[in-house]
Write a sequence for this structure.
């Protein structure tokens, strides 16, 4: 049995990672500030799924509060899985300070505590947004990432470089994951598949920005498996987790329509300058280093997300973004 700290444990991806680690028999200390980046009611719903397990301990703690986070550490921690973050490209334009503080300073706090308490393994959640809009697909981990289009992407790129510094200076083994358009049950209400599903179910107009473009949609269960696989020693590696199969956003809408048996009312709007036209992950490094490949088909993944919405409609329909 290993002991892990998982930050952002009430978040979409981190809650799945927490569940997987608990199911494997490990101990998890989860921390999350339950912030209003999106509706905390959904975060509490996720927490409720494993709150009563003896091997799980929860602390409502802010990553930016170094002293409070330090209280959760001891000298027996096997790894820190730092998935807590402020996410969202468009929202970061409105309040870039909270993104810098949470995503950079929060990561710095966790790395400093790893150094202080002798934690040898660190996992960081990054994002495909670091590739910007000037990289030729499919995106490889060594592609240029010097022109991020949003404060969110910039904060994550900065966090990546900070992790390398601590690997170099203090010997911390580090896996940095760049996630590609993660979706699935209990997904973030500000993400496209949740928003599309809600709009169609509730008979509301659906906004499609710039014709939708294409995205490398990746199911949350596949991502969680990849994160756990990344706990093995790698030195320092940046690794894409994506489907390696980008599809048009309009095709995703058609799959949701088919699952629901209802048609969408689509309103086309101009694409915001912080949105890239398309994403596509080269996942050969994940395959070679972690023996990881996505397993959930887009059709099955869409079905799981839509079915969760329907089963939890009273909660889902009233969630604020």
């Amino acid at each position: 049995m290993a002991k892990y700290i998982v930050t952002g444990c009430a978040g979409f991806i981190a809650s799945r990672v927490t569940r997987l680690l608990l199911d494997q028999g490990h101990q998890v200390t989860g921390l999350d500030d339950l912030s209003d980046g999106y509706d905390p009611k959904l975060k509490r719903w996720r927490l409720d799924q494993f709150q009563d397990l003896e091997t799980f301990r929860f602390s409502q703690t802010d990553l930016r509060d170094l002293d409070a986070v330090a209280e959760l550490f001891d000298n027996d921690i096997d790894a820190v899985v730092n998935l807590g973050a402020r996410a969202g490209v468009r929202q970061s334009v409105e309040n870039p300070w909270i993104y810098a503080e949470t995503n950079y300073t929060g990561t710095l706090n966790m790395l400093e505590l790893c150094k202080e308490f002798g934690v040898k393994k660190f996992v960081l959640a990054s994002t495909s947004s670091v590739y910007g809009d000037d990289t030729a697909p499919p995106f490889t981990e060594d592609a240029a990432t010097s022109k991020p289009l949003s404060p969110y992407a910039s904060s994550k790129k900065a966090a990546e470089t900070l992790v390398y510094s601590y690997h170099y200076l203090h010997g911390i083994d580090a896996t940095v994951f760049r996630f590609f358009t993660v979706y699935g049950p209990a997904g973030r209400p500000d993400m496209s598949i949740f928003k599309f599903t809600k709009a169609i179910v509730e008979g509301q107009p659906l906004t499609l920005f710039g014709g939708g473009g294409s995205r490398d949609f990746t199911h949350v269960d596949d991502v969680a498996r990849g994160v756990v696989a990344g706990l093995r020693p790698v030195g320092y590696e940046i690794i894409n987790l994506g489907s390696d199969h980008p599809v048009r956003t309009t095709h995703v809408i058609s799959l949701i329509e088919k699952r629901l048996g209802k048609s969408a009312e689509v309103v086309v709007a101009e694409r915001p300058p912080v949105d890239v036209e398309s994403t596509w992950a080269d996942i050969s490094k994940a395959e070679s280093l972690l023996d990881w490949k996505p397993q959930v088909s887009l059709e099955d993944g869409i079905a799981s997300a839509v079915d969760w919405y329907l089963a939890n409609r009273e909660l889902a329909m009233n969630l604020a973004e």
Summary: The chain has a mean pLDDT of 96. The chain has twelve helices and 13 strands. The CA atoms of residues 133 and 276 lie 5 Å apart.
